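Table S7 (text form). Paired inputs.
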Amino acid sequence: MSTINLTKEEEKEFQEIFNLVDKDKSGSITKQELAQLLDTLAINASQQEIDLMIGEIDKNNDGEIQFEEFVAVMSRKVQAQYTAEEVKNAFKVFEGNAPGGYIKVEALERALTVYGSDRLTQEQVAELVNQLEVDENGLFNYAEYVNIMMAE
């Protein structure tokens, strides 16, 4: 596959994702299919934003995303690496008076709904928090979570 070095497993995973989005099995992702994907992911995007996304990805200027274009973008996103320490430092900003390595669920909820460019809705935050292991004091051990999630 072109100039991107992927393992066979990574290429297979990208192909499976691509095939899920390419609903009409045309071999490319249309603006409508991209809009459906964003809607499914609860990402509110205007038609103008979708056009900009397609424009950024669409290297052959046919108005659609072919598999190789999809892989180029996905591999760029997947390879954006943060160290475990950088992720922990991001959590630490919201730690407040919680013990080191922990964050109060309320502080996490506030951070996810108030700060950053990709704010979550209350419903999205509730769904996320329901998946976390929170102790009896309403604390989430982010240090342990990051260590587990980023283990090689």
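Next pair, protein 2 of 2.
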Amino acid sequence: MTCGISSVQKLVSMFRCAVALKVLNVRGKKNWVVCSLINTNQTLFLQLHQNISGTNRFYAVVKRMCAEYGIISQFIHEKHTGFKMKKEITGSCIRQIMTKAGNIPWELRFSLVDNRDLLTRHTLIIGIDVNHDRSNNKSTAAFVMAHGQSYTQYDTLVATQAMGREMLEDAGELMNMALQKYRGIYKQYPTNIVVFRDGVSNSQLDTVFRVEVDAMQKAIEAVCGDPPPALTTLVVQKRVKAKFVDERGASPAPGTVVDTDAVSSQYWDFYLITNRPPRGCCATPTRYIVIKDDAGFSSDDIQKLVHQLSHLYYNWCGPIRVPAVVQSAHRTAHLYGSVIKPARRLLNLHLQAGKHILMNITCK
């Protein structure tokens, strides 16, 4: 494990970040590495444990404590450490650590085809997803905001609701909080708001429009006054049966858009392929349905915007199937609903270990 720590220390040093490492032994079983990021005045957790997983009970407790105390955390599987630690894994871990510490690994220079002025105004990008965890009898909704000139500044809101409810019950309240947060940062409200709603089937499209979009629109009008920001809402569908091939019978190149013939005659929709599949496989496209567009996006502009946003997910080097805010909302809803929130009732199981760890962190 010492070799693994040394590897992390050397790589973090490449980012000119002073690091203090301390190994803690909790109950003689768990090995913890506490890294103080001195130049950012933050504290970072690294856990190196053989049986770590997203459903590990100890993992849930520590994540809960880190969330409540505002502690940056990163967990690394023990098998990825040591002399044989691969460059790809090490680089990925360091990229995640530095991103959580406030650094930006890469940016995009956004551009549109037809209406270039749409992105020169104050634009707020929002990703929404709902996680259903039957073991906790609750559904968790994540409302992730991306803002700034390159949409790399994130804020996250979380709400819980009755189990199995896919419709976002607090859509208006969450939009209200998001607008207040935006104004607190930029001293004004956004001019455009683009919302990506994940996890909605075709049969739920009308309900989403009547319930969620209507609630968000009313919140925007109540908070921002007249004229309100232009609201554009897209439904994101990852579970699609459609497959496309090029003239050679191979998987289409990343960036391929299908917006004719195979699309719906009822909705404004299109399919987009953003990444390359494994060799010998055919890429699965993602379907986007535009259910509201007050900003006046053209088809080319909305497609290009979606494609560019899919390159900003920092847990992966390259494009992903959906915009980064959508994937972040998906991960946040799962982490809070299935890991952090359930950990509240598990804290007593590891109370002494938790006190020991937090004492060492907060006294740095």
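The first strand starts at residue 19 and ends at 26.
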